Amino acid sequence: MFRPKLPTMPQPTGTVTPPAVVIEPTTITPGTPAPPSAPAVPASAPVPSRPTVQFTPGTALALVGGGTAVVLVVGAVLVSMLLAVAVTAASVAVCALVLRSLLASDAKRR
Predict the structure, then answer these.
(1) Measured between alpha carbons, how far is 106 from 110 in angstroms, rounded to an integer?
(2) Does pTM top 0.90 for this prediction?
(3) pLDDT at site 54
(4) Per-residue pLDDT at 41
């Protein structure tokens, strides 16, 4: 009653053989050039070129200023979140002390 009944695996009806793989050897004869697979690009076709980015002292200064601003803003946000957690923890601790004091004084009166 408490033993699990495991399903039985059905037996295969026929013999199962993996498909046969036929490997045919190829011969390589040296000295025969390979046929071109793709047509060659004519020399007159223009090659699209991307404009190169040049850093001037002004752009480098702007990048440094922007990176500094991002670091300062992210730092201020993280510090403010840490401060909020610290203030919350302090207020919870004060509430716990007040409740403990109230419960202790109530027990002394009885």
Answers:
(1) 7
(2) no
(3) 81
(4) 56
